From TrEMBL:
One Gene Ontology MF term: DNA-binding transcription factor activity
Gene3D superfamilies given in the database record: Retinoid X Receptor
InterPro entries: NHR-like_dom_sf, Nucl_hrmn_rcpt_lig-bd
Keywords: Receptor, Transcription, Transcription regulation
Organism name: Acrobeloides nanus
Transcription found in the keyword field: yes
Family annotation (SUPFAM superfamilies): Nuclear receptor ligand-binding domain (SSF48508)
Keyword match Transcription: yes
Protein name: NR LBD domain-containing protein
GO cellular component, as recorded: nucleus
All residue ranges annotated as the NR LBD domain in the record: 1-154
Amino acid sequence: MPDGGYVKLSELEKFYENTKMVKGDPHEVAKVFEGTMSYIRNVVVEHMRRIDISEVELCALSGMFLWRDTVQHISSEGANILYRTRDEILRDLHIYYRNNGLIESEVTTKTAHLFLLIPKIENSVKLFRENFHIAEIFNMLVLDSCCKKQVDSSD
């Protein structure tokens, strides 16, 4: 879990038993999110384990998400800042790999494997949003305004 804790998928309902946002039966809410949680564990986390992701790589990946060029109506000055920042992230990642003794071909492979996580993470976000919409439609959850904006956001 994001807070460093963990949840057993076989006991997922326990996670939903102790939260204020659940209005419905925690077992039913757990069923809605079970597929997404399994996807995260079996696909996203497994990929992270396979590539032995480091904190630096996780920060670089987060930076690439934060500095995406999919933002609409960005000024040319803003776009230039975005591209320069992403270039810096990539340069820093390259330097990190080189300082850890990787040769050029290994740097390329490590970077590629790291960025292959992006579509998997994007898919997990899409699945979570769908789950939240389903749970909200069936009146299983109460989302505060901050969470509701995130669920409703398509970026």
